Amino acid sequence: MEIKSLPIRPDTARNAVRFIFFVCGLGLASWAPVVPYVKQRLGIDDGVLGLLMLLIGGGALFIMPFSTVLLNKFGTRKIIFISGITLGLILPMLLIANSIITMGITLFCFGMCMGGIEVSANAHSILIQKLFDRPILSGLHGIFSVGGLTGSLGLGLLIKLGFQATYAMLSISLLIVIIMFVMYRRLYAHDDETRINSHHDDKEMAVGQSKWAGWFNLHVLFLGMLCFCAYLSEGSMLDWSAVFLHEEKKAPLEIAGIGYAAFSIAMATMRLFGDVLVVRLDHRVVVVGGGLLAVFGLLIAVLSPSYWGALVGFILLGFGASNIVPILFSHAGN
């Protein structure tokens, strides 16, 4: 299949999906700086807050089993668009919900949107990676981290400038909606995805690989276990870094969101160079070495007596964990 036979050039699609990853990071990180505000407004303790946090993952887990069916039926482009627009509509509700029940429902829906857009964006990226025939996923996840940095710092800056938190979140939502409408037509439609996948499936079948590899196999389960570990550290940074810095390390409330920002800067920096590292180093070196560095960073963050030391730990965690998930996703996609 010739690239020029496609209605959209791979470079155009890659640039569009970069914006989608930016939206993923922006939407997810916009939650981190407002966690202390939500906790104070609802008057809840850490135990209740932790249970509410679980609903974000619960929403993502709820939608993921249906992802394959939805992606096969409608294509990744439509799922990206619907999830992104819904995410933009839900974000302000995180600051409007005034009871534990409504906050729980909102966080569950928030998790569903994040799960839907992340799965579909990664699936679309793996499709584009097949056209380039070289690693591009780490760079795309780097844009996710840039979005995370923008969300964690941008929302705090708007609030610092005098915006009410709700109006600041509305600004983020409007930006997300605009990006989704602009980038929708620059992604591959369902028919184009089918053509690209069929072409590469034929190539794989020609070298003796099975087209219908079993979903429940040891290799996939092992990749899933490693992804679980990586996302556990990333999720703890998103949900708890601000509370941890404010309550355990005595950081001022107005700068508590800087923890996730430091983590995001580290991740973005390493991910933007991640594709080069994967090419020059063995992927096992990147995954194992990164995992050890992430553990070391977590230890420093927990044991440090000040929030400045904890920030150093967050940065090391970001460096170490940065390229683990993109490498695992590439293996899963292949």
Core attributes:
mainly alpha; single chain; globular; Growth Hormone, Chain: A; 15 helices; 334 residues
Question: Can you characterise this structure?
Answer:
- There is one protein chain.
- The chain is mainly α.
- The chain folds into 2 domains: 10-200, Growth Hormone, Chain: A; 216-333, no CATH class.
- 80% of the residues lie in helices and 0% in strands.
- The chain has 15 helices and no strands.
- It has helices at residues 10-29, 35-42, 46-74, 76-90, 93-96, 100-132, 137-160, 165-183, 190-206, 218-248, 258-272, 274-280, 283-303, 307-321, 324-333.
- Helix 1 packs antiparallel against helix 6 (100-132), helix 10 (218-248) runs antiparallel to helix 11 (258-272) and helix 10 (218-248) runs antiparallel to helix 15 (324-333).
- The chain is globular, with a radius of gyration of 20 Å.
